[in-house]
Design goal:
Length: 203
Amino acid sequence: MVATKLMENSSTAASADEVVAATRAWLEKAVIGLNLCPFAKAVHVANQIRYVVSNAQTTEALLADLGCELQTLAAADPAQVETTLLIHPRVLGDFLDYNDFLDIADAAVEELGLAGTIQVASFHPQYRFADTEPDAIENYSNRSPYPMLHLLREESVERAVAAFPDAGRIPDRNIETLRRIGHHGWRRLGLRAPPEPAGKIRK
């Protein structure tokens, strides 16, 4: 399932279709291909992922889009829309600014009465975990082609974790996988290259 909000024409900005295509390639080659998230393949194959490209250029506009998408996901039939990728290529390109916005995103979930129903996961081209170097390969588990907010149903997450053996080891296994392939292996995936990482630090 693809739902896009077309961005204004720009000589430097990718079109919404290009943004979605790059995101799908990353999902297929990295997230699923490297098994970074064992739960992603099923919803991808079932076409239950909603892709939304925001044309927001301010945090206020992005927050408004986020509110709409949270309510849309909450109201949708899970058989049709299991999860939403809200991609925002024109705002929060700096990771530190994006990292600060995550608290605002969590507050929006609370304000809409969706705490315990929907959670927001974070992905960014410059993603950097706490206590890692900017170029550490383990950061690439959360490095998407464009900044995005991943909206997940809590019930689905809990069900998937309960059904997956040693779900708690997924982050450690991802680190092992990424360190094994290294930066060279990541480049061989042929994905859109992220910009140089800046700052830090999502704990």
